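Standup notes
- DV: blocked on the single-chain target, sequence here:
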Amino acid sequence: MEKENDGLKGTGNFIHNYIVEDLGENLNKIHTRFPPEPNGYLHIGHAKSICLNFGMAKLYGGKCNLRFDDTNPSKEETEYVDSIAEDVKWLGFDWEDRKYFASSYFDKFYEIAVKLIKEGKAFVCDLTPEEMREYRGTLSAPGKESPYRNRSVEENLDLFERMRAGEFPDGSKTLRAKIDMSSPNINMRDPVLYRINKASHHNTGDKWCIYPMYDYAHPLEDAIEGITHSLCTMEFEDHRPLYDWVVENSGFKDLPRQIEFARLELTNTVMSKRKLRAWVEEGIVDGWDDPRMPTICGLRRRGYTPEAIRDFCERIGVSKANSRVDKGLLEYCIRDDLKPKAPVIMGVLDPLKVVITNYPEGQTEMVDVENNPANPEMGTRQVPFSREIYVEKDDFMEEPVKKFFRLAPGKEVRLKGAYFVTCTDFVKDDAGNVVEVHCTYDPETRSGSGFNGRKVKGTLHWVDASRNLKAEVRLYEDMMIDTEDGQVMNPDSLIVKKDCVLEEGAANAKPGERYQFMRNGYFIVDTKDSAEGRPVFNRIVSLKSSFKLK
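- DV (later): unblocked, structure below
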């Protein structure tokens, strides 16, 4: 088949085989959907599903809908609808004019429920939730039929209409499918199709006081929209017979194919919406977009790019086997994406003053520094250099250990873009802390002059002491840490440094712009707390990682 030459093989995605088998030469007829429930913000796990559903449709020239499964008004809000749409668009996907809501089909769902009642396939049940659990049975024992299962069609129609009219209190009645209480699949033991919930809906207001259950609404949504392949995570595998039953008994001729895949589990990461919501509500984090959150909006504020997230989702592949992905792979992807395109600047996070004692007082010269050594096409810039500069505190050691190639008494290093300097002395405060380092420079070692054949092992970044930008820099790490006993909260997930010094040109950095701070990592100008001339920088990721790409 000609499509085999279009990059459709060897993608690490078993679903391709199903689609080719199902659609044959009509691959452009694939129709998928991304169906989030608008009860929270999307996280990195949802990104996998977004990339899969929209990606498969794009690959085969088909279509993908954005559909909100808004069947539970108690937990859903317009805020979540808007954030989900923004996240999908930011990731680079377009649903065109196919933005749908389950709530738009409520009339159709009700009509189908009435049809099922008339055909003797659904009944109104008065069992309480506790009684229903008791009647349901177990994995090893069959369930018992409800005493209300054999009500007449006329009585069921009357009761269901009165449920819709709001005559009964919440939880007092349900509409259940009449399938098989002895089925080995518990999901087929007369599942609930409708429940009473007198809550206002974000889309339909107070029109309804009964709402369809997810397992009833979801397959109908797929059938109504002409979905060919319903891609969902593995926990829905046992629900597939019910999915098929609903579609077939509702009168639809074309049955969407449900295919399950393993959800994303990431090391050092919480994927539970409930836990993430608790962090927000308890003020543990700065909202859903806190850069420590695994939410897509949190990753966006952290500085991750849509290209890096899509690359990550492609690399992890799709399978049925549950596995835990090393978060280092996600960090690898953002480094790989930013390396050739993020401008490199010098920023000192823990400043230590260096005085170059033989450099002329009052003199400032401009030195050339590459904007990105990994991408020469980005050119160079000029930065000021004078007698006093700042370096990192960690770049000086009074008594250097073996293989310490930075500043120490008698040691010579290269200052990036400038000169070689040699440490001659240092000054301590009353507490014994080194507060100033004295050096001499060799004027014959100006960067670009060839250094007269001399070489040094250490090259330091630095910032001029008189012309710089003092800025707040936030160092983010994982919110949680995996241990043998489970996940624990990381007390150092956020370290704020308010006395950092950056190149003076950084004052012009705009919110959302990304940079590499030489030797310190990749950073983004915070989109929430930055002000004109006073950018706040969030660390996206450090430069080094123990993760190795296999």
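- Follow-up: The CA atoms of residues 426 and 437 lie 4 Å apart.
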